[in-house]
Amino acid sequence: MVHNVALVLGGGGAAGNAWEIGVIAGLADAGIDMTEAADLVIGTSAGATAAAQVRGGIPPAELFASVLSPPIQPVGRDRERPPSLPMGTVFERMRAIGAAATSAADLQRAMGAFGLESDSILGPGAAPRRAIVAARLPRPEWPDRPMIVVAVNAHTGELAAFDRESGVDLVDAVTASTAAPGLVPTVAINGSRYIDGGVRSTDNADLASGYANVVVVSPLGGRSQTPAEQGTDPAGQFEGLRRFPGTDLAGQVEALHKQGSHVEVITPDADSRAAMGTNQMDLATRIPAARAGFAQGKQEATRRGLRLASPAG
């Protein structure tokens, strides 16, 4: 059986999540409904939340409208603000870990160790954070159609590709995939602890191997591979985080091409980058990022003429 369409949704903070939903809604408005077309959805970090939203049975226009509305807030004690470390300090530490790493596996293990080390400070925020993640999802159950949520084992640095057959609650899987080391607690699942899937790759597009058509919606667009070189665009938090060959977006796309997949990569255009700003963790970026993504999605659908129907790509 030929697998036809895989949709890959990458990480990129609150702004990245909103931008992805905007792009999906814009594509649908132009006649390409990825919520229906995708045979598989792969989500990493902020893209894991977007994947659960896309697979939640809600029309793209309604998903887009929800981003433009005030966010749902947990009630009671779950409203308490979790403890945190200074964001600048965390990203500086991440860059130092990357600079010292000798391989992708070494980097992932070191990031896991950093996450576990930070739990002594961040641990009390675990319960409120899970509730916050749960409030963002359309439903707590895994969808019937295939979806993969990517995390990394904090003890071993190994890939964890959670799906409905993994025996892991969807909320736990998404919470783990969005657990950026040093910023939020690691997530306990079946006796192990997990961190953000973006530690392995911001997109993990290689997991779409075997699909004839792959659409990658990447808020970071591979920019984390090297220090920012975006002309006059100021650098954000994610620029300069090291990537090893095979874990970077360009390398993964090249490998998919060699396997015969037709790959379309959508990254933020100039207007979207401006809307997403330099602090993509800032919730205030969500509405402008979503609107920019919607406009870009409509343009991409017509400019590229995305090909999704034919197994031959």
Low-confidence parts, pLDDT < 50 over ≥5 residues? 225-233, 309-313
Put simply, the count of helices is 11
Order of helices and strands: EHHEHHHHHEEHEEEHEHH
What sort of overall outline do the alpha carbons produce when their principal axes are compared? globular
Helix percent band: 40-55%
Strand content: 5-15%
Main sheet overview: 8 strands, mixed
Distance between the termini: 15 Å
Q: Tell how many strands the DSSP assignment holds.
A: 8
**Mean pLDDT reading:** 89
The helix-and-strand class reads alpha/beta
Q: Give me the Rg, rounded.
A: 18 Å
Could you characterize the architecture of this molecule?
It is a single chain. With 313 residues, the chain is of the alpha/beta class. The chain is 40% helix and 14% strand. Strands 1, 2, 3, 4, 5, 6, 7 and 8 form an 8-stranded mixed beta sheet that branches. Strand 3 and strand 4 form a beta hairpin. Helix 1 runs parallel beside helix 3, helix 1 crosses helix 11 and helix 10 packs antiparallel against helix 11. The longest helix has 19 residues. The radius of gyration is 18 Å and the shape is globular. It starts with a strand and ends in a 9-residue tail after the last helix.
